[in-house]
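Contributing new records

If you add data, match the layout below exactly. Sequence lines come first and carry their own label; structure lines follow with theirs. Keep one chain per record. Anything else will be rejected by the validation script.
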Amino acid sequence: MAKGLLKNYRLQHICGTVKNITVTLDDETYRRARIRAAELETSVSALVKRYLVDLAGSESEFERLEKLERSLRDRVVAFSASDRLPRDEIHDRRR
């Protein structure tokens, strides 16, 4: 099997199917990305992949707030509104 095909086969075997994307950049951005990739001893493709994996793996705002809510609820123990307000005040509808 050719080297490229073998690599693709391994990726598909390990990760399931893989998707290719096309990104359009201006020449200067691409040139600077290639330089940065070379400094990091990697490829532009690997940099984009790492960025997208990090982006997809980070929690959404909803997930962050949901986690915060759970944390706050865990800190509240034995809460009862009756400990704070008399029953008459709770049901006072004149306000």
